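Kindly inspect both lines:
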Amino acid sequence: MEPRLFDRELKKGSAELLILSLLEARPRHGYEISKLIEQRSDGALRFHVASLYPLLYRLEKRGWLQGRWVEKAGQRRRRYYRLTVQGRAVLASQRHGWQTFVRAVNAITSVTAEGSENA
């Protein structure tokens, strides 16, 4: 599998978890979510508008997020998203699943003097 294709698949598999996690603390608008993902990953992950907003709309349609338009003087209106009760439950479940997955991958890919095998 090509590295870029693999990276894209990893991002798709973790996108919901990333967004739900960023909304756990407080409501945020899409651009802020996008910038936080980029900043906190040191640029390794980026979500473009073309992929982020459809994902936010899907999560809202599932009932995991609730969005509302906010208008402030001198700024264009923005849609702020917050987690719903259902979204918090999904986040807890996804977070647990992700941690289990990471532990399993680390157990397989970690090299130790005792655990390495020669094929």
In short: The radius of gyration is 18 Å.
